[in-house]
């Protein structure tokens, strides 16, 4: 059995990471990082240097990863914002956080089921084409004929 060792995360300096380095590590653009902050999607204020430049900590990178994954799975910005508000508010709203995540998971599962059905159709069509190409009668596959009106 092949064993894959997880690499330890790159260390983050005490002073934090620049926006460019945070973008590289999270896989999102600097523009997106600034947008997440403006849109109220971060749970803690991003540190800044005396000159006003953003400095990202490990907690910021972890939260950005959560935001990007929620967004990649179709959660609307308002949903991520609500989740961030609940997390930032601290203890006492865990039921609401859970409800929000369960609802989102249910939507994602429905999307996955729909994608599987669509993939089944695509796989069927691939097999039909392969079969006809192998048999040498691909020219017998249906093709739309324009109306002669």
Would you kindly provide a written description of the structure presented here, covering whatever features stand out?
The structure is a single chain. The protein folds into two domains: 81 residues, Orthogonal Bundle (Multidrug-efflux Transporter Regulator, Chain: A, Domain 2), CATH 1.10.1660; 45 residues. It has a two-stranded antiparallel sheet. The radius of gyration is 24 Å and the shape is elongated. The mean pLDDT is 92. Strand 1 and strand 2 form a beta hairpin. The protein is 58% helix and 3% strand. The longest helix has 42 residues. The protein is mainly α and 149 residues long. The protein has five helices and two strands, in the order H-H-E-E-H-H-H. The termini are far apart. Helix 4 runs antiparallel to helix 5.
Task: Jot down its keywords.
149 residues, mainly alpha, Multidrug-efflux Transporter Regulator, Chain: A, Domain 2, 2 domains, two-stranded antiparallel sheet
Distance from first to last alpha carbon: 65 Å
Number of helices: 5
- Total domain modules: 2
On the 0 to 100 scale, the average pLDDT is: 92
Proportion in β-strands: under 5%
Rg over C-alpha atoms, rounded to the nearest angstrom:
24 Å
Poorly predicted tracts of residues: none
Summarize the helix and strand pattern as letters.
HHEEHHH
* Category from helices, strands and their pairing: mainly alpha
Name the CATH architecture of the largest domain.
Orthogonal Bundle
Give the CATH level 1 class of the largest domain. Mainly Alpha
CATH fold type of the largest domain: Multidrug-efflux Transporter Regulator, Chain: A, Domain 2
Q: Per the principal axes of the C-alpha atoms, what is the gross shape?
A: elongated
Number of strands: 2
Biggest sheet features: 2 strands, antiparallel
Percent helix, as a range, is 55-70%
Oligomer: single chain
Sheet with most strands: strand arrangement: 1-2
